[in-house]
Amino acid sequence: MTTTTLRPRTAPAPAPAGDRGPALRARRRRLLHWIAVHAVSVAAALFFVLPFVFVFLTSVMSDGQAMSGELWPHEWNWSNYATVFHTPGFLDWWKNSLMYAGLGTLFTVCSAVPVAYALAKFRFRGRRTAMILVISTMMLPPQVIVIPMYLVWAQQLHLSGSLWPLIIPMAFGDAYSIFLLRQFLLTIPQEYIESAKVDGCGELRTLLKIIVPMAKPGIAAVALFQFFYCWNDYFGPQIYAAQNPGAWTLSYGLESFKSAHSVDWNLTMAATLLVMAPVIIVFFFAQKVFVEGVTLTGVKG
Fold first, then answer.
1. What is the dihedral of CA 83, 88, 94, 100, to 10 degrees?
2. DSSP state of 75
3. Distance between start and end Cα atoms, the chain
């Protein structure tokens, strides 16, 4: 008969420190990834922000310091902005730019929404052909038709020397705006429209009561695109309003201001910052709805 000897049970030995290596390496990789991503983000932010900082610092320098290589102003000359505002014609350029951008944006949105709604939700023969024709107009550079259009507005309608040849055509739709809005409206379920029709809504009431409130991000994106385009437009005012200084916009008047103050870099930078300020402010307050609208316009084709 054999006897078995029971030995006392011992606790397992603790794992050596080397066994925690994979966890430490994973944690180290996450830390390095976080540092790399934020370093790239900070570098990209500085890349875009530093030019604006340079423009601002130069705009508050004195005449002599603006011509030197110094980057920080000795004195903050805020009077440079007052000098720019008192430049003859500068306030008129502001008014013309606001009229051009405001009316152009309003006309574009009001004309593009119904067309985009029809192309997105109506079922009719030739809908695809109509969409192709709209998109094809986006491939036509404006320089191709500028001469015949100028002859029509100047010789037939006698509207040269004003901004109306640029504003009036926007009341008849814009291909890019129609395309973006159509892409956004495709994301709205058809059931909403059918429910509205069951309740007795016609097409116009459905558009105004159902589609427009749901399409606010897309409409806001289109409005911002058009506002930025009109505000920064240089080619159009140069063609139609060059002979009338009273109809100049800021983008075109800034060129004249820069020529008159070619050695006053502080005044030129102050005028440049005043021209850019409305666009920056509008985008800062509307960036959320702008990004949302741009993102959703590409969800469904």
1. -160
2. S
3. 86
Predicted TM-score (pTM) of the model is 0.78
Q: Give the contacts of 237 (CB within 8 A, at least 6 positions apart).
A: 100, 163, 166, 247, 248, 249, 251, 252
d(CA 167, CA 245): 18
Helices (H), 211-264: 212-214, 216-232, 235-240, 250-260
Higher-confidence residue of 8 and 94: namely: 94
Residue 65: per-residue pLDDT = 76
Q: How far is CA 73 from the centre of its chain?
A: 32
Query: Contact, 150 vs 160, CB < 8 A?
Result: yes
Stated as kind and residue range, the H or E segment containing 150 is helix 142-151
H helix or E strand, kind and range, residue 124: none
Fold of domain 88-296: MetI-like fold (1.10.3720)
pLDDT value for 290: 66
More confident residue, 292 or 298: 292
Q: Note the pLDDT of residue 7.
A: 55
pLDDT tens per residue across span 133-158: 888 888 888 788 888 888 888 888 88
- What three-state secondary structure class fits 161? coil
What distances in angstroms separate CA 84 from CA 76, 241, 265, one per listed residue?
A: 16, 22, 12
Which amino acid does the sequence have at 157?
L
Task: Write down how long the chain is.
Answer: 301
